[in-house]
Amino acid sequence: MSAVEAEPEPGSERASGPLHLLRLLWRGRAWNQLVLLLLVMVGLFFLVPDPSLAVEVLIYSLWAISLNLLLGYGGLVSFGHALYWGFGGYAAGLTLLHVTHSLWVALGASMALCGLLALGSGVVCLRRRDVYFSMLTLAFAQLGYFIAFEARPVTGGDDGLGNIPTPPLDLPGLSLEMHPIRDPLPYFLLCAGILFFAFAFALLYTESPLGRVLQAIRESEERARGCGYNTRLVQLITFTVSGLLAGLAGGLDAIFNGLEGLQPYWSLSGVVVIMVILGGRSTLFGSVLGALVVLVLEHYLSISFGDWPLIVGAVFVVCVLVFPQGLWGLVRLEPLGSWGAVAWTRRLRARLSREPGA
Amino acid sequence: MSGPNGRTTLLRCERLDRWFGGVHAVDGVDLEVATGSLHAIIGPNGSGKTTLFNLITGHTRPHGGRVWFADRDVTGLPYHRVVRLGIAKSYQITTVFQSLSVFENVRIAAQSARWPYTFWLPASRLRDASRLAEQTLERVGLQHRRRELAGNLSHGELRHLDLAIALATRPKLLLLDEPTAGMSPAETEATVQLIQDLRRDLTVVMIEHKMDVVLRIAERITVLNFGVKLFEGTPEEVRGHPRVQEVYLQGAL
């Protein structure tokens, strides 16, 4: 758990020598997850032959991270996270179709709408706990689905909201035309940049006093109240932040595809829940891993094998049974005992933390 | 306000009433706790001691009566607001944040005074909260276990961690619900020493079953029976009171 790792080791504050940088990185602070994220991005850039798959991995990672704040850190299992994804897409699409041609305004609209939506539904959902909370989030998602289905003149109903124009990428002193299909590179860089900042924000959120209280509430809400915290408020803030980030991901996806399709929100919500649990709930980076694995499996299996969800499901079952900590637990190779990565890094750490000259 | 012994009153309960279905769990209980005192509440199982605590902390709303804390009416305030005003409670069944480190457990409590809902800077930057957490851990003797996960502590250590979390909110009044429950004689002795040490800057109200502990360290004792206050007085008075002996102390002395 990051809460343990983040605490600095006493006595190693003023270490010097050639290993200093490595040591800083290895200290186990949550921030080295950002380095891992950068590595994944570089890997996606160079190793994935299909650029649209690479972009989708980035966007779904953002969505999974937003859910992990709730599910992993808050212990709040939301089965309705597709609501914010979908409505974020509508907000961005409708803004680009009818209001302005600015990318930033469109994404801002996604976040604003979904933040408000999450705030409103969060007030109701958080009145209940555990499975009742999950059912309420599911109910809200279905409500949103049928609203989108019925509001055909606005959302296109089950045909989806199509022909969303691709806005130019406006940066200070630079305006870049984007064609996601012909040349996905600018869009990849845009998504990578947004994911990087969102990931850094989410990391800060989980390491902040508020984020720590969120984890404490997951352990014991009663005790968190006994420490003087309004636990409902902490959860509501997180629910809102989570919905806002999911809306951002949904907006990015709608712009990328030029289309906001409508598929049942309960199954779509299930996909992102699987990503988070498969990747590992205990770290934010696990969600990136989960999104990567699910999408890559889907991409390659669906070409050769019609019933690909069967295989994804089987992988999921095996992972949950063998690695309760998800793929992140697999990466740490904990079941392998003294040969695993954890034992190995522990030895390396012990060697590194030995004071030079002592 | 002045209470017993001419000291100011920190906590005052007036005619508190609470029903659970047909059971009158707390029946018109008056309680006055002087600043700086150690006040014990005793009584047989089901006599309303824990319910009385819950009425004070706002877990349970009273059906009648009022609670005053430091000259402020706190009746019906939610628990977390009562904690903010300076009442902390340790739990009868130890309640800690299992999968967080011992240090983190206490630090979360310590940060609540100044940085409750901050999300724009890392918690490790809050030097004052970290320092308070260190001091509190030292006080309860868990300094050497600070990096351990709370779920890995022994029963006695958990009780001390529970206490440390309560202390780290910097309360004026500490409510202890059976602080020595399930402890060995040696652990009990250590806890008694700790409670006496706490009294230097805290007011303590404790529910306790071990009569030798109560008679030794309490200044005033309130005896509850079936939700009614049976008697209140010094340990000597309680020891000599015939009805108290009849309902509660048989065999204990």
Q: Please, what is the average pLDDT of chain A? A: 85
Average of pLDDT of chain B: 89
Q: Number of helix segments of chain A?
A: 17
Distance between the termini of chain A: 31 Å
How many extended strands of chain A? 2
In angstroms, what is the radius of gyration of chain A?
Answer: 21 Å
Largest sheet of chain B: 6 strands, mixed
Radius of gyration of chain B: 18 Å
Strand order of the largest sheet of chain B: 6-7-8-3-9-10
Fraction of residues in helix of chain B: 25-40%
- Helical segment count of chain B: 9
Q: Enumerate the strands of the largest sheet of chain A in spatial order, edge to edge or round the barrel.
A: 1-2
Percent helix of chain A, as a range, is over 70%
Q: What is the general shape of chain B?
A: globular
Helix-strand string of chain B: EEEHEEHEHHHEHEHEEHH
Quaternary organisation: heterodimer
3D architecture notes:
The complex is a heterodimer of chains A (358) and B (253). With 358 residues, chain A is mainly alpha-helical. Chain A has a domain at 31-266. In chain A, 70% of the residues lie in helices and 2% in strands. Chain A has helices spanning 2-5, 20-26, 32-47, 51-73, 82-99, 103-125, 130-150, 152-155, 185-207, 209-219, 221-226, 231-257, 265-279, 284-304, 308-322, 326-331, 341-352, and strands at residues 169-171, 174-176. Chain A has a two-stranded antiparallel ribbon with strand order 1-2. In chain A, strand 1 and strand 2 (174-176) form a beta hairpin. Chain A is globular. In chain A, 45% of the residues are buried. Chain B is built from 9 helices and 10 strands. Chain B starts with 8 loop residues before the first strand and ends with a helix. The longest helix of chain B has 14 residues, at 127-140. Chain B has 253 residues and is an alpha/beta fold. In chain B, the strands form 2 sheets. Chain B has a 6-stranded mixed β-sheet, with helices on both faces. In chain B, strands 2-1-4-5 form a 4-stranded antiparallel β-sheet, covered by helices on one side. The chains are: A mainly alpha (358), B alpha/beta (253). Chain A binds chain B through residues 1, 3-4, 6-8, 204-205, 207-213, 215-216, 219-220, 222-231, 233-234, 237, and chain B through 78-80, 83-84, 88-89, 91, 95-101, 103-105, 107-109, 111-113, 115-124, 126, 129, 147, 149, 165-166, 168-169.
